[in-house]
Amino acid sequence: MLHEDVYLATSLGEKLPSLKPLRKNQAKLDRISKKRNKRKRGSKSRRKLTKKEARKHQKIARSRQDFHYKTAHNLVRSGAKFFFHEDLNLKGLTKRNKVKQDDEGNYLPNGQSAKSGLNKSWLDAAFGQFFKTLEYIAEKAGSVVVPQKPAYTSMVLCYRNEIIFTDCGTRNYWDEQHSLIVDRDVNAAINLKRLGLGIFPSIKRRSGNLSIVGTIDDSTTKEILYTLYRATKMPTP
Fold first, then answer.
1. DSSP letter string, 161-175
2. pLDDT bracket for residue 235 (50, 70, 90)
Protein backbone atom coordinates (compact mmCIF):
# COMPACT_ATOMS: atom_id res chain seq x y z
CA MET A 1 0.00 0.00 0.00
CA LEU A 2 1.01 3.62 -0.39
CA HIS A 3 -0.70 6.48 1.44
CA GLU A 4 0.77 9.90 2.22
CA ASP A 5 4.02 9.32 4.19
CA VAL A 6 3.39 5.59 4.79
CA TYR A 7 5.09 3.01 2.56
CA LEU A 8 3.29 -0.10 3.77
CA ALA A 9 1.28 -1.51 6.67
CA THR A 10 1.76 -4.92 8.28
CA SER A 11 -0.61 -7.38 9.95
CA LEU A 12 1.20 -6.67 13.24
CA GLY A 13 -0.12 -3.12 13.17
CA GLU A 14 3.08 -1.43 12.01
CA LYS A 15 3.08 1.36 9.45
CA LEU A 16 6.50 1.79 7.86
CA PRO A 17 7.43 5.28 6.57
CA SER A 18 8.08 6.04 2.93
CA LEU A 19 11.43 7.39 1.70
CA LYS A 20 10.22 9.28 -1.41
CA PRO A 21 13.74 9.85 -2.80
CA LEU A 22 12.59 11.29 -6.12
CA ARG A 23 10.06 13.62 -4.52
CA LYS A 24 12.64 14.97 -2.08
CA ASN A 25 15.16 15.63 -4.84
CA GLN A 26 12.72 16.83 -7.51
CA ALA A 27 13.43 20.55 -6.93
CA LYS A 28 17.20 20.01 -7.33
CA LEU A 29 16.68 17.95 -10.49
CA ASP A 30 14.44 20.64 -11.95
CA ARG A 31 17.04 23.34 -11.31
CA ILE A 32 19.79 21.30 -12.96
CA SER A 33 17.56 20.46 -15.93
CA LYS A 34 16.56 24.10 -16.35
CA LYS A 35 20.20 25.23 -16.37
CA ARG A 36 21.18 22.48 -18.79
CA ASN A 37 18.42 23.38 -21.25
CA LYS A 38 19.70 26.97 -21.37
CA ARG A 39 23.14 25.84 -22.47
CA LYS A 40 24.06 25.37 -26.10
CA ARG A 41 23.80 21.79 -27.41
CA GLY A 42 27.19 20.09 -27.54
CA SER A 43 28.81 22.66 -25.24
CA LYS A 44 31.11 21.70 -22.40
CA SER A 45 28.84 23.33 -19.78
CA ARG A 46 25.79 21.39 -21.06
CA ARG A 47 27.68 18.07 -20.89
CA LYS A 48 28.83 18.93 -17.38
CA LEU A 49 25.27 19.57 -16.23
CA THR A 50 24.06 16.38 -17.95
CA LYS A 51 26.61 14.37 -15.96
CA LYS A 52 25.55 16.16 -12.77
CA GLU A 53 21.92 15.26 -13.43
CA ALA A 54 22.87 11.63 -14.11
CA ARG A 55 24.81 11.45 -10.83
CA LYS A 56 21.78 12.80 -8.97
CA HIS A 57 19.52 10.14 -10.52
CA GLN A 58 22.09 7.49 -9.62
CA LYS A 59 22.13 8.72 -6.02
CA ILE A 60 18.32 8.57 -5.90
CA ALA A 61 18.30 5.01 -7.29
CA ARG A 62 20.90 3.87 -4.76
CA SER A 63 19.08 5.44 -1.81
CA ARG A 64 15.84 3.76 -2.95
CA GLN A 65 17.59 0.38 -3.22
CA ASP A 66 19.14 0.84 0.23
CA PHE A 67 15.69 1.68 1.63
CA HIS A 68 14.22 -1.47 0.06
CA TYR A 69 16.92 -3.68 1.59
CA LYS A 70 16.57 -2.14 5.04
CA THR A 71 12.76 -2.40 4.94
CA ALA A 72 12.90 -6.02 3.76
CA HIS A 73 15.42 -6.95 6.48
CA ASN A 74 13.19 -5.25 9.05
CA LEU A 75 10.25 -7.40 7.96
CA VAL A 76 12.22 -10.66 7.83
CA ARG A 77 13.59 -10.08 11.35
CA SER A 78 10.03 -10.59 12.64
CA GLY A 79 10.66 -14.31 12.14
CA ALA A 80 7.60 -14.88 9.96
CA LYS A 81 7.78 -17.84 7.60
CA PHE A 82 5.25 -16.48 5.13
CA PHE A 83 4.89 -12.96 3.75
CA PHE A 84 1.71 -12.13 1.85
CA HIS A 85 1.59 -8.95 -0.19
CA GLU A 86 -0.86 -7.39 -2.62
CA ASP A 87 -0.47 -8.65 -6.17
CA LEU A 88 -0.44 -5.15 -7.63
CA ASN A 89 -1.05 -4.39 -11.29
CA LEU A 90 1.80 -1.89 -11.38
CA LYS A 91 1.48 -1.22 -15.12
CA GLY A 92 -2.21 -0.50 -14.75
CA LEU A 93 -1.67 1.74 -11.71
CA THR A 94 0.76 3.96 -13.63
CA LYS A 95 -1.19 3.98 -16.89
CA ARG A 96 -2.31 7.32 -18.32
CA ASN A 97 -6.01 8.15 -18.29
CA LYS A 98 -7.92 7.80 -21.54
CA VAL A 99 -8.26 10.92 -23.63
CA LYS A 100 -11.73 12.55 -23.60
CA GLN A 101 -13.07 14.54 -26.53
CA ASP A 102 -16.38 16.22 -27.25
CA ASP A 103 -18.36 15.92 -30.50
CA GLU A 104 -16.30 18.72 -32.06
CA GLY A 105 -13.00 17.04 -31.30
CA ASN A 106 -12.01 19.36 -28.46
CA TYR A 107 -10.12 17.76 -25.60
CA LEU A 108 -11.93 17.58 -22.26
CA PRO A 109 -10.45 17.35 -18.73
CA ASN A 110 -9.69 13.72 -17.92
CA GLY A 111 -7.97 14.03 -14.55
CA GLN A 112 -4.54 13.24 -15.97
CA SER A 113 -2.91 16.15 -14.12
CA ALA A 114 -3.73 14.61 -10.73
CA LYS A 115 -3.05 11.10 -12.05
CA SER A 116 0.45 12.16 -13.16
CA GLY A 117 1.33 13.04 -9.58
CA LEU A 118 0.00 9.69 -8.37
CA ASN A 119 1.91 7.88 -11.13
CA LYS A 120 5.13 9.56 -10.01
CA SER A 121 4.50 8.41 -6.43
CA TRP A 122 3.99 4.80 -7.55
CA LEU A 123 7.15 4.88 -9.66
CA ASP A 124 9.08 6.50 -6.83
CA ALA A 125 7.94 3.73 -4.46
CA ALA A 126 9.13 1.05 -6.92
CA PHE A 127 7.09 -1.74 -5.33
CA GLY A 128 8.07 -4.19 -8.07
CA GLN A 129 11.72 -3.80 -7.13
CA PHE A 130 10.87 -3.98 -3.42
CA PHE A 131 8.92 -7.24 -3.75
CA LYS A 132 11.88 -8.82 -5.58
CA THR A 133 14.23 -7.64 -2.82
CA LEU A 134 11.90 -8.98 -0.12
CA GLU A 135 11.64 -12.32 -1.91
CA TYR A 136 15.44 -12.59 -2.16
CA ILE A 137 16.06 -11.75 1.52
CA ALA A 138 13.15 -13.88 2.76
CA GLU A 139 14.41 -16.88 0.78
CA LYS A 140 17.83 -16.59 2.42
CA ALA A 141 16.07 -16.64 5.81
CA GLY A 142 13.99 -19.69 4.90
CA SER A 143 10.76 -17.76 4.41
CA VAL A 144 8.35 -17.54 1.47
CA VAL A 145 6.80 -14.50 -0.20
CA VAL A 146 3.35 -15.08 -1.72
CA PRO A 147 1.42 -12.43 -3.72
CA GLN A 148 -2.35 -12.34 -3.15
CA LYS A 149 -5.21 -10.77 -5.08
CA PRO A 150 -6.40 -8.02 -2.70
CA ALA A 151 -10.07 -7.89 -3.79
CA TYR A 152 -12.32 -6.74 -0.90
CA THR A 153 -9.54 -7.08 1.73
CA SER A 154 -9.68 -3.33 2.41
CA MET A 155 -13.47 -3.31 2.84
CA VAL A 156 -14.15 -6.12 5.34
CA LEU A 157 -13.61 -5.56 9.06
CA CYS A 158 -10.85 -8.04 9.92
CA TYR A 159 -12.23 -9.33 13.25
CA ARG A 160 -15.92 -9.27 12.32
CA ASN A 161 -16.92 -10.30 8.80
CA GLU A 162 -18.77 -7.10 8.03
CA ILE A 163 -18.25 -4.61 5.20
CA ILE A 164 -17.25 -1.33 6.85
CA PHE A 165 -14.75 0.54 4.67
CA THR A 166 -16.95 1.21 1.64
CA ASP A 167 -15.42 4.63 0.94
CA CYS A 168 -11.70 4.99 0.09
CA GLY A 169 -11.73 8.29 1.97
CA THR A 170 -12.54 6.51 5.25
CA ARG A 171 -9.15 5.97 6.86
CA ASN A 172 -10.30 4.91 10.34
CA TYR A 173 -13.28 3.15 11.93
CA TRP A 174 -14.40 3.66 15.51
CA ASP A 175 -15.85 0.49 17.05
CA GLU A 176 -18.07 1.54 19.94
CA GLN A 177 -18.50 -2.06 21.13
CA HIS A 178 -14.76 -2.63 21.64
CA SER A 179 -13.76 1.04 22.16
CA LEU A 180 -11.24 0.61 19.38
CA ILE A 181 -10.00 2.69 16.44
CA VAL A 182 -9.30 0.46 13.43
CA ASP A 183 -6.85 1.79 10.83
CA ARG A 184 -7.96 1.04 7.26
CA ASP A 185 -4.50 -0.02 6.04
CA VAL A 186 -3.67 -2.22 9.04
CA ASN A 187 -7.13 -3.78 8.69
CA ALA A 188 -6.39 -4.57 5.02
CA ALA A 189 -3.00 -6.06 5.94
CA ILE A 190 -4.62 -8.40 8.46
CA ASN A 191 -7.22 -9.44 5.90
CA LEU A 192 -4.46 -10.10 3.37
CA LYS A 193 -2.86 -12.44 5.90
CA ARG A 194 -6.23 -14.14 6.47
CA LEU A 195 -6.55 -14.54 2.70
CA GLY A 196 -3.12 -16.15 2.48
CA LEU A 197 -3.96 -18.52 5.33
CA GLY A 198 -7.27 -19.45 3.71
CA ILE A 199 -9.54 -18.03 6.42
CA PHE A 200 -10.82 -14.96 4.58
CA PRO A 201 -14.56 -15.16 3.75
CA SER A 202 -15.98 -15.37 0.24
CA ILE A 203 -17.56 -12.18 -1.10
CA LYS A 204 -20.45 -12.40 -3.53
CA ARG A 205 -22.17 -9.60 -5.41
CA ARG A 206 -25.91 -9.99 -5.88
CA SER A 207 -28.06 -7.30 -7.49
CA GLY A 208 -25.31 -4.77 -6.91
CA ASN A 209 -24.99 -5.61 -3.20
CA LEU A 210 -22.11 -7.41 -1.53
CA SER A 211 -22.74 -10.37 0.75
CA ILE A 212 -20.22 -12.24 2.91
CA VAL A 213 -20.16 -16.03 2.96
CA GLY A 214 -18.22 -17.55 5.85
CA THR A 215 -17.68 -17.09 9.58
CA ILE A 216 -14.74 -16.24 11.79
CA ASP A 217 -14.00 -18.30 14.92
CA ASP A 218 -13.66 -16.75 18.38
CA SER A 219 -9.96 -17.55 18.77
CA THR A 220 -9.10 -15.72 15.52
CA THR A 221 -11.23 -12.75 16.57
CA LYS A 222 -9.49 -12.51 19.95
CA GLU A 223 -6.05 -12.77 18.35
CA ILE A 224 -6.80 -10.00 15.84
CA LEU A 225 -8.31 -7.73 18.51
CA TYR A 226 -5.24 -8.24 20.68
CA THR A 227 -3.02 -7.20 17.77
CA LEU A 228 -5.12 -4.09 17.09
CA TYR A 229 -5.11 -3.03 20.74
CA ARG A 230 -1.33 -3.36 20.83
CA ALA A 231 -0.97 -1.44 17.57
CA THR A 232 -3.04 1.46 18.92
CA LYS A 233 -1.32 1.21 22.34
CA MET A 234 -4.69 0.79 24.03
CA PRO A 235 -5.24 -1.47 27.07
CA THR A 236 -6.87 -4.79 26.26
CA PRO A 237 -10.38 -4.94 27.76
1. --B---STT--EEEE
2. low
